[in-house]
Amino acid sequence: MVRTFALLILALAVTLGGVIAVARSGSDPSTQRITYLDQGWNAGTREHFYYITQGTVIMPASWLAAIDAPDGQPLMSQGRMQRLGFVYDDASSPAGPYHWPIGFAIDNRTAIPTVGLTCAACHTGQITYRGAAIRIDGGQANINLDALKSLIDASILSTGGNARLLSAFERRAVRLGYPRNRIVADFNARYQGVVRSGAARAQIAATNTLAGPGRNDALAVIARILFNNAIDVPSNTNRGTAPVDYPYLWGISHLNWVQYNGSVRQPMARNIGEALGVGAQTHFINPATGALSPLPGRWRTSIPIENLHTIETMLATLQPPPWPQSVLGRVDRALAARGRQLFVQNCSACHGIREIPSSPGEEWSVKVIALQTIGTDPMQARNFAQTVYDGRKLGLSAHATAAEGLQAVTSAVRTQAYIDAHIPRSLWPQYDGYGRQDSVTAPCGYKARPLVGVWATPPFLHNGSVPSIFALLSDTRPRQFWVGSTEFDPRNLGIVTTRVPGGMLFDTSIVGNSNAGHWFANDTRPGRIGHRLTVAQRYAIIEYLKIASYANYPRIFVTHPDPEPCVGTSSYGSW
Questions:
Q1: Distance CA 433, CA 417 (A)
Q2: Separation CA 125–CA 136 (nearest Å)
Q3: Three-class SS of residue 161?
Q4: Distance CA 218, CA 239 (A)
Q5: Which residue from 187, 235, 468, 488 has the fewest beta carbons nearer than 10 Å?
Q6: pLDDT per residue over 176-222, tens digit each?
Q7: C-alpha closest to that of 403 among 262, 228, 282
C-alpha cells in the first residue's frame, strides 16, 4: 500500500575571517545579503545538499505550484515561506522551475514528478546581524514544520471545498503538467483524506506541545508513522510533548551515537528513519486486508538509498562554521585563551572529544549523561523509552517500544533497498556508515557532543529552552522569551528575543519546555553540574566558543565507548 505522509552560489576564492561568498537571497532585491562561511563545501556541494531528494513526498510538484493558501495567495509565495522560517538560495540555483526555498526537492523518478522535503530543509541555518544574513550549512533551521503541515492541509481543504477555487487550481495544475484525465479524481481523493483525518489531527494538536519555529518532535513523529499510519493501527498513539531543536550536522560522522538521547548508532538507519518521518512512501500493508504486504514489496519505499549515502558522504566533509569577524566583530584572543582554560576545567569532561583509536575511521565516544545528573527536561528521552505500541503487524510484541520498531523497520527497509539498487553486499557496511551496527537503544539521558561551532546554533539545550550561551552558563534564565527571530546577539551568543511575524512565545512552564538543568550554581539544586561562574568567566568561555576548532579543542583518547545509562540494566524503562 502506498501512503504519502504530507508533512511533511556563488563562491569566491578569497577568504576573509571565514567569509567566502556574498550573494543575493532569492529573487526579491530587497532581501538580505548572504554571507557564506568556509565550511569545507564548494558551491556545487552546497547546492547538491540543498536540493537532493531523499524520497519524501508532500504532493505532486505541479499541485504545490498551483495551489493557493486560504487567503487566496499562492501557498508557496516567497514572503509566506520566509515567515515560516525557510531561506532562499541565489536566484541561479537549481531549485527547479518554481524557485522554491532551500529544502524542497522535485523527484522526477516517477511519471508525475513529486515534491518533498530534503535534509537541508531542517538542517540549513541562517542568522542575521545588522542587515547581513549568515548562512550556516548543516546548522539548525528556523522553520516551523508544524505550521507548514497545517497550512498545506488548510489549503487542500479550502481548495477542495470551493468549486471556483477548485476549478482554478485544476486549470493551473494541468498547465503545469498534471494529467488532465486524472486531476479531478486524484485531488478529490487527497481532499477526502484530509477531511477524514481532521478529527485525529485536531486531537493530536490538542495534546501535543507546540513546537514553533526551529523545533520538531522528530522521534515521536517517526514512531507515530511507523506504528500508526504505515501499518494502520489507529490505537497506536504517542505523546508529542518533547519538541527538540533541529541538531547541527558537522561532526556527526564521528559520533558513535546520534539523536539527542543517544539512541541510534548507524548513520543509514538514522537517515532511513528520518526520511520515513518526513513523508517517504511505504508499502507495509495491503489496503484491502490490513495485513502485511507480501515480500519483497513490503519493505520497498520511495527512499533512494544511494542518495542517502551521497548525503552522508557530503556531511562527512562538512566543517564547523568559523566565526566571521568581518560581520560579527573581532575576537579578543587573550580573553578567548582564558576562556579555553575555563572550558577545560568546567565543560570538557562531558563535551570534550573522546576519540576511540581502535574504531574504524575517527570515531568519538559521546557521553550520554543520565537525566538525574543533568536535570534537563526529561520528556524526549522518557517518551521514547516508555511509550509502547502494538507491533504485532511488524512481527513484534503487543507492547513494543519505539526502539524495537525503529530498528526492525529500518533494517528491513535498508536491506531491501540495497538489493533493489544492486549494491554489492561487500559495500553494505560502507553504505551503512563506517561499518557500524544497526543498534537502537533508549537511554535515560542526553548526549553531550563536542561544541565546536555551537556559537551558530541558538537557542540552546536539546529543547531550545535557553536563548543564549550566557543564559546557559548563568544560575538564572528567562522563563519566557520570543523565538522566531534570526537576529543574532554576538555578545551573549544567542538570539535576539524580540517578537517577529510567525514567532512564538516560548513558555518554559509547558510540558517539554523546561529550561532547568545543566546549572552552574552554588546551591544544591537538581541538575547542578558546577559552581557559579562569574560574569567575567562566562564571557571568557563565550569568547573561546567563538573560535573553538578541532585543532584547539580539548581531546583525549579512550579505550572503549562510554556506557549509556539505563541500557542493559534493571532500571531500563523504569525511570
A1: 15
A2: 5
A3: coil
A4: 12
A5: 235
A6: 999 999 999 999 999 999 999 999 889 888 999 999 999 999 999 99
A7: 262
In the predicted model, residues of the chain with pLDDT beneath 70 are 1-32, 91-96, 569-575
Q: Where are the alpha helices (DSSP H) in 324-440?
A: 325-328, 333-346, 348-351, 371-374, 379-386, 402-420, 428-433
Nearest Cα residue to 215 out of 242, 237, 249: 242
Q: Among residues 291, 293, 271, 290, which one has the least CA distance to residue 282?
A: 293
Q: Can you say how many angstroms the Cα of residue 388 is from the centroid of all Cα atoms in its chain? A: 24
Q: With residue 147 as reference, give the H or E element that holds it.
A: helix 145-160
Distance, in Å, from the CA atom of 190 to the CA atom of 57, rounded to the nearest integer, reads: 13
- CA–CA dist 480, 7 (Å, integer): 28
CB 258 within 8 A of CB 264: yes
Question: Which residue type sits at 2?
Answer: V
| Beta partners for residue 105, in sequence order | 116
CA 361-362-364 angle, to 5 degrees, is: 135
The domain segmentation of the chain, as residue ranges, is 332-374+450-557
pTM over 0.85: yes
> Do 252 and 260 contact (CB within 8 A), yes or no?
no
